C-alpha cells in the first residue's frame, strides 16, 4: 500500500515530498511440496542446490480452488482489514504477474470482483486496475508507476500493488 507521507511541496498543489510503502501483506497457499527427494531427483537437480544453494526446502503450491487472482485478493483483503482501509480510499490497484486467470481479463478485475463480495457491489467503483506482465520487473515498475501517481494526485488516495503468480513446475 502506497500513500502520501509528508507535507505538500511549495512547488505545486498536487505534489508531495514523500511517498512510501505503508504496509505489506503476504498470502501463502497452505499446501507445500518438499524440494528434496522425488521433486529434485526427477528433475535431475542436486537437492543441495535447492536447500543450501538458494535456501528452498519446500515450495508452496496452490490448492484446487486457488489461482493468482484469489491469492492476490486474499492478501489485499487481509491488508485492508488490518490497516482499516476502506475501498473508497483505494484509487488504483496495480498487479504484477506472470499468470492469467483466463488470458483475456486483467487479474485486477477479478480481485475487485472478489473484494466487492465482502465490501458490497460498486464499493470499488472509483478504483482502476492495471496488470503488468513479467512478474518481478513488472511489479517493480508497478511500484514506481503508482508512486508517481500517488505523489501527483491531489486526493488522499492509496495505491496498492500486488504480485501474484503461479509458476508451472517443469518436469
Offer a few descriptive terms.
7 strands; 20% strand; single chain; 171 residues; alpha/beta; Peroxisomal Thiolase, Chain A, domain 1
Describe it.
The protein is of the alpha/beta class. It has two domains: 2-27 and 66-163, Thiolase/Chalcone synthase (Peroxisomal Thiolase, Chain A, domain 1, 3-Layer(aba) Sandwich); 30-63, no CATH class. It is 34% helix and 20% strand. It is built from five helices and seven strands, in the order E-E-E-H-H-E-H-E-H-E-H-E. The chain has helices at residues 38-42, 47-53, 68-82, 107-119, 135-152, and strands at 2-4, 19-21, 31-34, 58-61, 90-97, 128-133, 158-163. Strands 6-5-7 form a three-stranded parallel sheet, with helices on both faces. Strand 5, helix 4 (107-119) and strand 6 form a beta-alpha-beta unit. Helix 3 crosses helix 4. The protein is elongated. 26% of the residues are buried. Residues 6-13 have low confidence and may be disordered.
The CATH topology label of the largest domain is Peroxisomal Thiolase, Chain A, domain 1
Largest sheet: 3 strands, parallel
The total tally of domains equals 2
Name the helix and strand elements from N-terminus to C-terminus, one letter apiece.
EEEHHEHEHEHE
How far do the termini sit from each other? 37 Å
Name of the top-level CATH class of the largest domain: Alpha Beta
CATH superfamily grouping of the largest domain: Thiolase/Chalcone synthase
- In what order do the strands lie side by side in the largest sheet? 6-5-7
What gyration radius follows from the Cα positions, in whole Å?
A: 19 Å
Secondary-structure-based class equals alpha/beta
Q: Helical percent range? A: 25-40%
Low-confidence stretches: 6-13
Total of helices: 5
Number of strands: 7
Mean pLDDT: 86
Percentage of residues in strands: 15-25%
Shape: elongated
* CATH-level-2 architecture of the largest domain: 3-Layer(aba) Sandwich
Amino acid at each position: 500500500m502506497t500513500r502520501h507521507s509528508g507535507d505538500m511541496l511549495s512547488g505545486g498543489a498536487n505534489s508531495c515530498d514523500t511517498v512510501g510503502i505503508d504496509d505489506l501483506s503476504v498470502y501463502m497457499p497452505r499446501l507445500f511440496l518438499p524440494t528434496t527427494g522425488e521433486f529434485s531427483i526427477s528433475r535431475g537437480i542436486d537437492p543441495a542446490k535447492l536447500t543450501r544453494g538458494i535456501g528452498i526446502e519446500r515450495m508452496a503450491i496452490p490448492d484446487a480452488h486457488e489461482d493468482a487472482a484469489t491469492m492476490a485478493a486474499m492478501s489485499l483483503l487481509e491488508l485492508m482489514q488490518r490497516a482499516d482501509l476502506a475501498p473508497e480510499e483505494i484509487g488504483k490497484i496495480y498487479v504484477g504477474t506472470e499468470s492469467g486467470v483466463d488470458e483475456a481479463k486483467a487479474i485486477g478485475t477479478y480481485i475487485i470482483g472478489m473484494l466487492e463480495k465482502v465490501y458490497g457491489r460498486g464499493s470499488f467503483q472509483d478504483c482502476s486496475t492495471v496488470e503488468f506482465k513479467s512478474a518481478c520487473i513488472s511489479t517493480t515498475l508497478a511500484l514506481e508507476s503508482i508512486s508517481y501517481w500517488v505523489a501527483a494526485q491531489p486526493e488522499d488516495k492509496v495505491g496498492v500493488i500486488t504480485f501474484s503468480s503461479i509458476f508451472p513446475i517443469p518436469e
